[in-house]
Structures
1.
Amino acid sequence: MMKVALFGSTGSVGKMTLEVLEKFPNDFSIHALVAHRSSALLVEQVKKYKPQTVVLYDEAEASKAEKMLSKQVHFGKEGLLRALDSADLMVQSMSSTEGIEATIEAAKRGIKIAIANKETIIAAHHLLKPYNPLLRPIDSEHSSLKKLYENQRPVKTTITGSGGPFLHRPLKEFSTITLKEALIHPNWPMGAHNTINSSTMFNKALEVMEAHSLFGMAPLAVIEPTSRIHAFAEYEDGMTQMVAYQPDMRVPIAHALGVERTLPFPFRKNLDLSKIEFSPIDPERFPLFQLAYEAIKTECGPLFLMFLNEFLVDDFLKGSLSWLDLQHKLQQGFESLPQFSIDSIEAIKELKKITKSIHKCITSTSYTAC
C-alpha cells in the first residue's frame, strides 16, 4: 500500500485527490494532510481520513486546529518536511511557492511526486533536475503531454485553452469587467488565482513555461472552448495524436497517482467529439499569453513573470487594480526583467523580493520608470 502525503489538501485539487484516493482504499493510505491556512476544513478532513501526520503551514491556524483535534499539528517549514517522513508519494498542490523546499526534499529522498503546482516546476526545475525526480504532472495539459511523449518525441506539441469567460466579450467592454465576472470559469472549478489567470489566459502562459521546464519544448496553444481536447502532438512520420476526455480533473489526478489502468475506471465518461472547434489566441484580446515565449529565453524570466502576475492578481482580488490594469501592469513590469541566476532556494527568495520592489514601483501612483 502506497503512503500518500497530500500537500494542499483543502484546495480544489486536494479535495478531488481525496475523492480519487477514496476509490482505491487497497492501493493507498493517506499518510499526511498538509494545508496552508484552512484549519476548519483540514480538521474535518483529519477526522474523516485519520492521517498519521497533520500540518498547517500557518502557526496560529495550526494551534487552533490542534485544540480542535487533541492531536499534534505541525507547522512551518519543519512541518512540511515532517509530512514526508515514511511517505511513498507526495501530491503537491500547494499554491504559490511554500512547498518548493519540501518538493526538493521529496526528490532527494526518492519519493514519487504527483504535482499540480506550476509555481514549483517553474521556480525549481533547475534545482530538482540533479535528483532526476519522478514527476507526474496533474494539470490536464501536462498530463496529456506526458502521454504524448511516452513512445517517441514529438516535433511539435500544442495545448488547448477554453478562452475563459471573456472569449466572446466585445473588446470595447473589457474596461467594465468585474471581479465577480472574472471569477466564473466556464468549464473547471478552480481557486481564485487560477480562475483569474484563465480570464486573462495567463494560465496558458504559465503552462507553456511549465511544459518547457518539464519536456524541454515550449508548446503552441490554441483555443478549444469545450476543454474536451487537452493536447496534441505531431511526430516525424507526419502522424498527429491527441488526448481527449470530458473535463474532469479527477482523470489526470488518477493518472498521476498511477491508477488510470484500473478497470472499471471509476471516472470514465462518454466522450462526444462533435462540434469541436479550434481558434488561434487573439493577441489583442489576450496579450499576456505571448509573454511566455519571451520569458523562456532567459533563466529567470518565467519565475519573474509568475511572481509579478501573482502580486498583480492579489491587487485585483483586493479591488485595488482593474482587470485591464492587471494586464497593462504585467506587460509594463516585464520590461524591467532582471538578469538573475536561479541556483538556490535563496536565489528564488531574492528574486521574489526584487519582483516585489518592481511591483511596488509600477503600481505606485507616482510611477514613471523602474
2.
Amino acid sequence: MFKKWLKLIKSVSASMLGVQSHKNYEEDFAEQSALPFIVTGIFLVVIFVISLIVFVNILV
C-alpha cells in the first residue's frame, strides 16, 4: 500500500516538473483512474504554495 502511494506521488511530482516520460504516463493511466492523480496533484500544489509562503515570510 505504501509503495503504491509513493509511486503515485513520484509520478505526479515528475509530471509537475515536466520530466515524466510518455511510457510512464501511459503505464500510470493503464492501471488506475485519473482521480488519485488529480487529488494527489492538488495536494502537492497546495503544499508547494504553503511552503513558498512560509519561505518568503521567513526571508522578509
3.
Amino acid sequence: MAEAQKKNMALAFDPFILTTGVFEPGMAAARCESETDEDRKRLAKAELSYYTGNTAAANAAFRALTQSDSYEVSIAAALGNAISSLSGENVFEIIKLYNSIKTLDVLFPADSDIKKMTDAVMLYFNIQLHNFSEIRFPPTGLNAFNLPDSLKPIAFYAYTHYLIETGDIGRAVGMAEGALVFMHKPCPISEIYLSLTICRGYMLRKIWDKAEYYFRYAWAQAAPDGLIMPFVEYRGMLSGMLEKCIRYEESAQYKRILELSNRFHSSWVTVHNELTGEKISDALTAIEFNVASLASKGCSNNEIADLLGITVNSVRAHLRNIFNKLGIDSRKELYKFVI
C-alpha cells in the first residue's frame, strides 16, 4: 500500500463484519454472503468459523488475510488470528503477533487515523488478555478513537469488561446495560458480549436472578447460529452459570464449550502469564477451576454446590485437591491463581 494512501485513510471504516454486524439471529451465514468485496467476505466467514468453534479453520483464514492489500482487512485479520490462536497450541505465535502489532506504533504519526486504529486494536487485545499494565486510555476516553457507530457497542463491551476486572462493578454494569438498550439492534455478537459482561457483574454482586436473565438473553442471541465462543472465552468468569442454564438443557453444546474452553483457558493463561508476569494456574481441572473461581469470590460451599449442581461434599473434596495443587492453605490465597 502506497504511503500516501496510508496517510489519507480515515477511521471511517469498521474492520469487522460479523462481530459488529446487524443481522437477525440465525442469519449469520447470510450476512457473510452479503459482502460484495471478496476479502471482506472471507474475513466475515473467518469470524463465523471462530464464533462457531471451528477455530482451526478460522485461524488459517485469518492468517491468510493478514496479507490482504486492504489495511482494514489485514489489521482485523491480525487481531482475529491472535484471538483464534488462543484455542490452538502455538501460543507463542500470539506473543509474536502481539509484538508485531505493537511495533506499528512507531510507523505512523501520533495523530493519524491508522495509529488510532492500531491503538484501539491493542487496547482491545490487552483488555481481553487482562494485560492491564499496558492499557493506556486517551485523556478524552474512547471518543478519542473517533470510532464508527457500528464499533461503539464492542468498544463499550471492552471498556466495561475492563472496569469489572479492575473492581468498578456498578459503573460497568450500568454502562453495559445502557449500551445494550441504546445500541442498534439486532447485533447479536455485540449483544452477547455486553450481556455476558452484565451477567458477570451481577454474579460478582451475587444477584443471581439478574445474572441468569442476562446469561439466558446472551444464549438466546447465540443459539440460532451456534455462536458458542463468547461462552468459551467467558467460561472461567461465568463459573456456575453455564452449568445452571445449559448443562442439561443444551448438553451437546455444553460439552463442546467444555472441550474448547479447556484449550482456550490453557493458552490464555500461558499468554497472560507471559505478558503480565502473573501466575494464574493452568494446573486445575475444569471443575476445580470453577470451584476455585467461585470460592475466591466469597461464595459459600452451599452456594458453589447449588450453582454447579454438585454436592457440598464434592465441593469440599475439590477444594482439598485445589489447595494441594496450588500449595496454599486457605480461600484467601485463591485470587492469585484464578480469574
4.
Amino acid sequence: MTPPGLDTACRLADPDAAYRLLVEAHRGLSDEDSARLNTRLVLILANQVGDPGVLREALALARQAGSAPSVHPSR
C-alpha cells in the first residue's frame, strides 16, 4: 500500500485565525528568538507528520514557494 502524499488542500477551519496565531506567537520576539521559535515549530510539526516522504514533499513545496516571484496588484 502506498502511503498518502502531501495533502495541500486547506484543512484549517479559519485560515485567517491560524495566521493571526502565528503572528501573535512572534510578537515582541527578537529576530533571533523568532527564528528559534520557527525552528522549534518546524521540528514539532515534522514529528507530527511523521512520514519522511511527506516531509520531503512539504520541504520541496516550501522551497519552491519561497523562490517564486512576488505578485503585487496593479496600483
